[in-house]
């Protein structure tokens, strides 16, 4: 393309011409709202589809999380594994195991043995009477000894290894826990999910015997449950999670298809895409707030005597990846909305595009003047520029949609790579070849 003097257009002139064409297209598209008044059902249908897609996106995040907790052993272990080193959980486990061990030690028998030993030694009556009043001190000393032993076991690296291995072996029972069948290390009864930490008692028993407390050898093998989650509504929660777990593989795809249908039905599809992205972001915001509020409600409804700190740590661990998914999808929605806005005819969007094109164009001109030759690559990029841009977006969408557990950083880096791809595309596009515009040029006078 050339100007009226027969000279090829400069980058600035080409940029202004592209902006003019874009504005003309926007003005032509501006006729659509008038037609929309004659089809209110179409606009209403588009809005309803977008809102339904936002609701499905919320359910999809929860469904994928529930599905991963049940089916992905590594995911489950990564969820509960860090609890072994959490101070609040360690304290709660220590108290629970200490109570179980003390309940199995007959303090009265110990006092009786001590009294018999004193009598056999011929101790004076007053001293023997003092020995008979040692129930409380002996109980206190035993509690300190047992508690200290349990604490050392629970805070050791060996406990963390046992905890992870036990949870990995017990993961197959989680499905039974969600369906109400409780035969494994994870059980669901009395409105609570509990994990058996009985093997800790055996380790404590060995250490107590080694410390000289022979009576600990009489401690039998017991099942000691550590409550992971407890709620009066756990039966209802179990049913909902079970349904979402079954639908976990399909809900994301259904939500995407419904959103696409809502955008396609709209008259102004760019605006509809922005609306769909913002609706999904709003859904993620609502879900994030709900998780925070539910945490406080759950902790307030715990039975008396339950460790609130430990329960809060367990809750945070269980929904850690759910929160990460909420943030990731919210970030992806915001990026999509921003991209749809910047592709529009608004003055800020035009200024941003123009500034980027000028900056990249200046860099390309410097490179060309330094000897860079784009050649066939430049002609190919110019000819298929739109298709290349569409391919970049499609690949990014596929990456995000097929990524097993995308995080916010995955979304951010994908966005950066997409922007870099568009920048490279712009850099490799030299514009129309001057010789192609020659026959249309106006001869010089």
UniProtKB/TrEMBL annotation:
Membrane spanning residue stretches: 47-66, 247-267, 273-294, 387-405
This protein's UniProt keywords: Membrane, Transmembrane, Transmembrane helix
Domain of life (superkingdom): Bacteria
Protein name (record): Integral membrane protein
Source organism: Streptomyces humidus
């Amino acid at each position: 393309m050339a100007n009226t003097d027969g000279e090829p257009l400069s980058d600035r002139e080409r940029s202004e011409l592209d902006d003019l064409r874009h504005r003309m297209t926007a003005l032509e598209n501006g006729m659509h709202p008038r037609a929309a008044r004659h089809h209110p059902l179409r606009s209403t249908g588009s809005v309803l589809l977008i809102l339904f897609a936002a609701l499905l996106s919320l359910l999809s995040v929860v469904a994928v999380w529930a599905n991963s907790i049940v089916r992905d052993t590594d995911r489950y272990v990564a969820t509960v594994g860090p609890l072994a080193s959490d101070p609040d959980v360690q304290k709660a486990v220590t108290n629970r195991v200490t109570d179980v061990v003390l309940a199995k030690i007959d303090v009265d028998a110990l006092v009786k043995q001590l009294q018999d030993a004193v009598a056999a030694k011929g101790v004076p009556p007053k001293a023997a009477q003092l020995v008979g009043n040692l129930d409380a001190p002996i109980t206190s000393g035993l509690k300190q000894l047992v508690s200290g032993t349990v604490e050392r076991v629970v805070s050791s690296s060996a406990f963390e290894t046992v905890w992870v291995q036990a949870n990995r072996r017990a993961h197959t029972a989680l499905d039974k826990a969600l369906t109400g069948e409780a035969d494994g290390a994870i059980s669901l009864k009395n409105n609570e999910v509990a994990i058996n930490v009985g093997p800790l008692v055996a380790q404590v028993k060995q250490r107590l015997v080694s410390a000289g407390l022979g009576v600990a050898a009489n401690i039998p093998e017991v099942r000691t449950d550590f409550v992971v989650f407890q709620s009066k509504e756990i039966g209802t929660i179990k049913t909902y999670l079970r349904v979402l777990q079954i639908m976990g593989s399909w809900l994301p795809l259904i939500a995407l298809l419904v959103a696409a249908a809502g955008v396609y039905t709209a008259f102004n599809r760019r605006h509809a895409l922005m609306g769909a992205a913002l609706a999904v972001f709003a859904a993620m915001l609502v879900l994030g707030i709900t998780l925070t509020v539910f945490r406080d409600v759950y902790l307030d409804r715990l039975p008396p005597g339950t460790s609130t700190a430990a329960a809060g740590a367990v809750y945070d661990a269980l929904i850690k990846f759910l929160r990460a998914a909420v943030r990731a999808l919210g970030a992806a929605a915001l990026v999509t909305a921003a991209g749809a806005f910047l592709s529009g005819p608004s003055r800020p969007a035009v200024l941003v595009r123009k500034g980027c094109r000028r900056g990249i164009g200046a860099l390309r001109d410097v490179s060309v003047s330094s000897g860079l030759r784009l050649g066939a690559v430049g002609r190919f990029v110019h000819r298929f520029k739109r298709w290349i841009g569409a391919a970049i977006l499609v690949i990014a969408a596929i990456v995000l949609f097929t990524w097993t557990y995308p995080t916010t950083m995955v979304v951010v880096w994908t966005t950066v790579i997409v922007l870099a791809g568009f920048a490279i595309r712009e850099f490799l596009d030299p514009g129309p070849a001057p010789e192609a515009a020659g026959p249309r040029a106006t001869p010089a006078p």
